[in-house]
Amino acid sequence: MQWTDEDPGAGDMAVLEEYVTWITARITEWDFTAGELRKAQGALPGYWTGLAAQTAQFALTANITAATESEETLQTAKTAIRTYIDAVNEIKNQARKLIEDREAARLAVNKQYTDASSRPTDDEVAQRDKERATAQKAFSDAVSGLRNLADERQAADTALERSVLSEVSSNWSYYDGGGNKDPYIQKQYATLTVLQMLQAFFSGEGPRDRFFLDGHPFLERLKDSEFIQSKYNGVKEKLLDGRLVTGQTELGDRAVSGSAPTMLGDAINSATAGHFGNLPESFLGSYNMSYTVDSIDAAGNAKVTFTIYNETTRESFARSPGGGYLPYKDAIDEANKEKGTYDNMDQTIIWTETFPTR
C-alpha cells in the first residue's frame, strides 16, 4: 500500500524485514568467501613460486577485494534499510494517533445539534460554537501533523534511495569506463551497457534492476540527448523567471508511444548500436522523469536533482509505431512463461545539475 499525505505511515515493512534477513545471509557468505581466499593466498607461497604464482596472487587479491567490497556494500544497504524501517515504524505510530484525532475531530465538526423539544439557549449556542471551534482546530492540527509526517516519510524514502543506490552504483557498477572521460571511450562503454541490458532482457538472466548515478557512461551519454538538453533549457528559463523555487518538483516525461517517427528512429538507432543517435535514450524509449530544486545558494546557483524511472517490458518492446502491438508479441509472452526469456526489467537514473537563477 502506497503512503499518502493522509496516511504517511501506510505500507508493510515485512518485505523489507525479509530483505534484511536475506542481506544478512549474503554478508555471512561473502565474509566466508573472503576468509577462504585469504587462507589460499597465505598458503600459496609455500608450494608455488614463479611468474604464474605471482599472477595467481594478483588474481586472489582482486577477488578478495571484490568479496570485501561486496560485503561492505551489503552492510551499507542493510544499515540504510534498517534505519528506514525504524523511521517508518515511528512515523506509523505517530500517524495512527493523529489519524484517530483527525477522525474524532471530523465527527465533532460535522456533529448536528438537533433538539426538537426546545430551542437552545444563548449559552448553549455559545458552548456549541466553542466546541465546534475546538474541534476545527483539532482537525487542522491533526492534518498539519500528518503533512509533517509525510515530509518525514518522503525524506526517509529519498535518504534510503540515495544511500543504497549510491553504494550499489559505486561498487557494483557494470562497465563503469574506469573513470575515462574521453567522449569516444564513454560512448563505447555506454553502448556496451545497453547491449548488456538487452542481453539480460532477451535471456531473462542477470539483474532486473539497474541503477545509474553521476559519472556512469550510460548516464553521461544520455545527458547529451536532445530531449534532456531541451529539459535543461526549460529548467534554466523557469529558474531565471522564478517559476521554479526550492523544494519544487516538476515532471518531464518522455513519451514516444504517440509519435511513430520517434519510435521508428529509436528502433533504427537501437538496431544499429547508436549509429544514428543517442543509444541510451533510444533504449529507454518512453520514460518517467522528475526534477526537484534541492537548494539555491547565496550566489544564486540552484542544485536540481533529476530522476528517471523506466521499465523495459515485453509490451514496450513489441509496441507498433502504428498503434497496437507487433505480431511477435504473443510469441515473446509465451517464451517468457515457458523459459523466462524476454523478462521485464527496470532502470533508475539519478543525477544532479547546477543552474544559475540570475
What characteristics describe this protein?
358 residues, alpha+beta, single chain
Helix and strand arrangement:
Blueprint: H1 14-43, H2 51-109, H3 122-171, H4 183-203, E1 209-213, H5 217-223, H6 226-240, E2 249-251, H7 260-271, H8 279-284, E3 288-296, E4 301-312, H9 314-318, H10 329-339, E5 345-356
Parallel strand pairs: 1-5
Antiparallel strand pairs: 2-3, 3-4, 4-5
Structure description:
With 358 residues, this protein is α+β, with helices and mostly antiparallel strands. Helix content is 60%, strand content 11%. It has a five-stranded mixed β-sheet with strand order 1-5-4-3-2. β3 and β4 form a beta hairpin. α1 packs antiparallel against α2 and α4 packs across α5. About 4% of the residues have low confidence.
Strand order of the largest sheet: 1-5-4-3-2
Basic shape: extended
Query: What structural class results from the helix and strand content?
Result: alpha+beta
User: How many helix segments?
Assistant: 10
